[in-house]
Amino acid sequence: xxxxxxxxxFTLFLHLITSCKEESTNSESTxxxxxxxxxxxxxxxxxxxxxxxxxxxxxxxxxFAKKTxxxxxxETLFYNEALEKLNKEExxxxxxxxxxxxxxxxxxxxxxxxxxxLDTNVSKAEIxxxxxxxxxxxxxxxNIVKVNYFKIPLKAAGxxxxxxxxxxxxxxxxxxxxxxxxxxxxxxxTNDSTWLYTEDLKKEIPMLRQREDINLTKGxxxxxxxxxxxxxxKIKDEKLRNTLSPVNFEIQNIKVIIVNxxxxxxxxxxxxxxxETAMKEKRVVIK
Length: 287
Prior knowledge:
Elements: H1 2-18, E1 21-22, H2 28-31, E2 34-38, E3 41-44, H3 45-51, H4 58-85, H5 94-117, H6 124-133, E4 144-153, H7 159-165, H8 171-184, E5 187-189, E6 196-197, H9 198-204, H10 206-210, E7 221-225, E8 229-239, H11 251-280
């Protein structure tokens, strides 16, 4: 990401420099009228049109034009001063340009190789193996909980039926509860295997943050009302910060880590084979 940011910033810088056009090479007749000038640098109407986003209002277009002109004049003045203050050696950017070009081309090719050859399937066994060998990297920074959660408008027609089914144990009652919730609940969550951040739950129910007497401890059932909604929580399990995070809470993180490791290994192996082949064919000479 740092490399890409450097490339983007460098590209923008080049764009600003090349927008300072010489009158001798870009006449007003071919580029529209001159919008701004600084010494021998010119910003033309066509330059402005090419940069302007499509589909914006007239007011936004005027605002964008003013900002673009301001940016162009500021960067051009800064560039002109740089030309005056830097010595010849400091302004020799050819090698830097070539290095950026080489890195960018390598990055593009690397991306194509990864897309064509990378296996992104990660098995359950791989996830568990990585987790067991790297448990020190999976310490919780916040509390997490497993919950059954329901948020139902007080005026909902099915509210009382839902309340009667909240502690459903039979498959038939659970199906009926889900059916009613899909019709009347503002939000609900019944996945017993999924962990949620406690803070995310408090954002969903602000009263949990306001009421310090409410503890989200395992086995507790909580009923709350505000002016518009009825809330029900059943805490199925909890894990506290600074303790080991459960493996099923880290599945996506572990998948990303494993796939990223594969990317690195794939490119390193490819480059190694490339070097070995080239040396074998005597295309590489190291003196």
